[in-house]
Amino acid sequence: MPANNHAALESKLWDSADQLRTNSGLRASEYSVPVLGLIFLRFADHKFTHAQAELAASLPPNSRRTIDKADYQARGVMYVPEAARYSTLLRLPEGDDIAKAVTAAMHAIEAENPDLKDTLPKSYNRLEKDTLWALLKIFSAIPMDLEGDVFGKIYEYFLSEFAKLEGQRGGEFFTPTPIVKLIVEVIEPFHGRILDPACGSGGMFVQSARFVRNHQQNPTNTISLYGQEKTRETIRLCKMNLAVHGLSGDIKEANTYYQNVHNCVGRFEFVMANPPFNADGVDKEKIKGDHARYPFGMPRVDNANYLWIQEFYSALNPQGRAGFVMANSASDARASEQVIRQKLIEDGVVDVMVSVGPNFFYTVTLPCTLWFFDKAKRSTPRGDTVLFLDARHIFHQLDRAHREFTPQQIEYLANIVRLYRGEPVENAHDSAALLAAQFPDGVYRDVPGLCRVATRAQIAAQGWSLNPGRYVGVAERAPDDFDFRERLEELHEELERLNAEAHTLEDRISANVAALLEAE
Predict the structure, then answer these.
(1) Are 135 and 35 in contact (CB under 8 A)?
(2) How far out from the chain centre does Cα 44 lie?
(3) I need a labelling partner for 96 at 20 to 30 A (CA). Which of 112, 217, 397, 493 fits?
(4) Is 363 exposed, middle or buried (CB count within 10 Å of its CB: 0-12, 13-18, 19+)?
(5) 176, 361 in Cβ contact below 8 A?
(6) What is the pTM of this model?
(7) Orientation of helix 335-347 relative to helix 305-315, angle to 10°
(8) Which class for 404: exposed (0-12), middle (13-18), buried (19 or more C-beta within 10 A)?
């Protein structure tokens, strides 16, 4: 099935399912998990049916050998007992208690597949009988001859749509896919252990596996997935998400601030995350002695950004890379947070900083910054430098309130990083012309308004700021090439830069006055 038909199928399924929700009176949070569970059930039945036919065809004529559960497991397929088959549920009389039957099907699959224990939803009695029957029929329309990762993409599509509906909670379990893809393209998780200590519904893992497949490797052989998530319902979304993509991982329920359930320190080749921005209320008394996970000290402010940043840093092994989303304010935060940031920069681990514009997230309009660590770079020519990329003017406008990166734009931005690192560039999404326009010789160079490499000394001179806008500057414009909105954004950026410089000067003046008073 061509990609455009996949998109049409996803949209059609969603429109049908969401119309039922509108008429059911259920909130999105009550509706989402049962619906995603039905997609999972349809996927499991689809894979089982195909495996069943292939196994039967592989037996010699007149063979008395019976096909059993082990045969399916050897093919990496979940065993689905007859009572849990999608076709069995559809054949039930409409007078039957369908909610009870679907719930029993979920229990039966868990009993046969221990990795899914306590994962599948059992709350189908929340749905009215007519609604549940209608949903079963909607998902039965997914063609049985689909190839590739279609069920995974349908699941992702529904996750993203539910995230939009669920507002703030949606942001807790889903990171927009283009943001995740850019992180993956920059850290290049080809092999090894991958950690997401705020894993939500598992999007970082799914895109990592897709990256590996796109480079002609089998992710089940090359990467291992480890996640932590404090909300049990979200863990269920994650485990189902992994399963419909043919993946598995060690996903544990834990509060990352206080529980190091994966023995994370120095263990991972890759760390990816989208932690909660500016979280408060963390009990620092419980963790102040954990110098292994928080080697640069406790921030004095009631803000967990620099706890998360140290979590990611400390989890990496000596060759490890990390990519994560962070509130813009963390790049210029002052006082104790600035001290921690200075130590990180002096350690040589900060590799790339990317500014992302507003309206990329479903729940907040604020811009954000992507941080990238690379512990291995300390022994390379990049050991004393950081690449700053300003991507605030690079986006595709989805609608009035939402933006995204196109695949071409993601590849373009990742290729700038590859040029900086001296790695081969890629052109799977036709980004070559964009790259050649700014880097005609195929070699990295600073481009005003887009990218700049700064040394540690230059960063120190900027008060240890990691805000790309303070380094990249503004692109030159022809005198008659005037756009009011863009000019206003440029002036706002300049104001932000001047304000940051003013804060630095305030600190210096305050320190000088204090020194004079002490001298007297």
Answers:
(1) yes
(2) 24
(3) 112
(4) middle
(5) yes
(6) 0.87
(7) 20
(8) middle
